[in-house]
Design brief:
2 domains, binds N-carbamoyl-L-aspartate, 424 residues, alpha/beta, TIM Barrel, binds zinc ion, eight-stranded mixed β-sheet, 12 helices
């Protein structure tokens, strides 16, 4: 089926261009001048943004092992509804992708059930505990985007160094959830104003940045390409800024919630709990600065669904993790682009669609004539209120519940096939 998107603002190589886009036989065709051509369906996209399908290098789809929280089918439907055509799935699964056999279970489910491209991670350590022997990295390498033990930090520096040396020889990155468990200090929330208010000891910033500092040195020493997950503290931003200046092959991501919330806004609800925790206003501002100056390379949601029961025990006792795929674009577009003018729409698209594909080996990319049609259509003016009942995800816990936002995903195409279309 050929679909013609007319009069949209198409994000081409050199920014937005007012043009028509024909999606046919899985590919995009960009026309400079409108004219007659065959299409089975024509959609008027006047005033709409037509952008490369978004890519998220950090999601938890919970299958195999925890399908009561999310499945490949529900997770990929949520991704498509959020404008994503490609995601990387984290390895805290059962069986875990620490062996080829473990990974194969997930690969089979992806082939059967996914609506979009999913490129899994392989585990770093065999038991995903950051201490045990390395996973079967060699046999996993051809099938994974990179290696990570996300969910936990690699506690042993020696093990991390060994992993980096092997990953480098396999031409794969090491991706790290940085959390030194000996430095946590407290639990559940950031050690800041809200922890004081509740009278508890929170999680120190040091537990994150000390491990980033260690790993950056190991990356410099081994020459391994290294990427840091969900950075949340001002110290981490500065460590990565300096490491980049000195030529270390390092990149990082942060999540929407760290950019638009701080611990002064927390409420005693499970939907405000994730790891790392939402930090102080100073941390949030440093992350925004790091985003604007290029220290932070990309935005990843860390979409981490749990059951309603697991998120019902308040901020101190609920499970760590919030969903993000269906809110990331509108939240960031509304706040960072439209409200605050911190970044341009083009920069946001770079952070959410292009930069991930420059750093990770992922399908999709810029909209060019003849390229595979991984394309998202957005209405930048449409506003709506975030209501988790509308989510495709099984997970409903989001700190953005009730927010009024603008920038609505209307359609998502993966390889030319519509995988999401808004109900009109
Ligand atoms: N981010 C979270 O709060 N939770 C993640 C694990 C992780 O990303 O560290 C999960 O798997 O639930
Ligand atoms: Zn993590
Ligand atoms: Zn995660």
């Amino acid at each position: 089926m050929a679909i013609l998107l007319t009069n949209g603002n198409v994000y081409c190589d050199r920014g937005f261009q007012r043009t028509d886009l024909l999606i046919s036989e899985g590919r995009s065709f960009v026309f400079e001048k409108p004219g007659l051509r065959h299409a089975d369906r024509t959609i008027d996209c006047k005033g709409k943004l037509i952008i490369p399908g978004l890519a998220d290098v950090h999601v938890h789809f919970r299958e195999p092992g925890f399908s009561y929280k999310e499945t490949i089918r529900t997770g990929s439907a949520a991704a498509a509804a959020g404008g994503y055509t490609c995601v990387c799935t984290m390895p805290n699964l059962n069986p875990a992708p620490s062996t080829k056999e473990g990974l194969q279970v997930q690969l089979n489910l992806i082939r059967r059930d996914s609506l979009i491209d999913i490129v899994p991670y392989g585990a770093i350590t065999a038991e995903q505990d950051g201490r045990s022997r390395l996973s079967d990295m060699e046999s996993l390498a051809p099938f994974v985007c990179a290696f990570t033990d996300d969910g936990r930090g690699v506690q042993s520096g020696a093990r991390m160094e060994e992993a980096m040396r092997l990953a480098k020889s396999l031409h794969r990155m090491i991706v790290a959830h940085c959390e030194d468990e000996s430095l946590l200090g407290g639990r559940a929330i950031h050690d800041g104003v809200y922890a004081k208010k509740l009278g508890v000891r929170g999680i120190s910033s040091e537990s994150e940045w000390r491990q980033v500092e260690r790993d950056v040195e190991l990356a410099a020493k081994t020459g391994c390409a290294y990427h840091v997950c969900h950075i949340s503290t001002k110290e981490t931003v500065e460590i990565i800024r300096q490491a980049k200046k000195s030529g270390v092959d390092v990149s990082c991501e942060t999540g929407p919630h760290y950019l638009v919330l701080c611990d002064e806004e927390l409420q005693d609800l499970g939907r405000f709990k994730m790891n790392p925790p939402i930090r102080s206003a100073d941390d949030r501002d440093a992350l925004r600065e790091g985003l604007a100056d290029g220290t932070i390379d990309m935005i990843a949601t860390d979409h981490a669904p749990h059951s309603a029961e697991e998120k019902s025990r308040g901020i101190l006792d609920s499970a760590f993790g919030v969903v993000g795929l269906e809110t990331a674009f509108p939240v960031l577009y509304s706040r960072l682009v439209r409200q605050d003018g911190l970044i341009t729409t083009e920069k946001l698209i770079d952070l959410m669609a292009l930069a991930p594909r420059q750093r990770f080996p992922l399908p999709g990319g810029p909209i060019t004539d003849g390229a595979r049609a991984d394309v998202t259509v957005i209405d930048p003016e449409a506003s709506f209120v975030i209501n988790p009942a509308d989510f495709r995800s099984k997970g409903k816990a989001t700190p953005f519940e009730g927010w009024e936002v603008q920038g609505k995903v209307l359609m998502t195409f993966r390889a030319g096939t519509p995988v999401y279309e808004v109900e009109q």
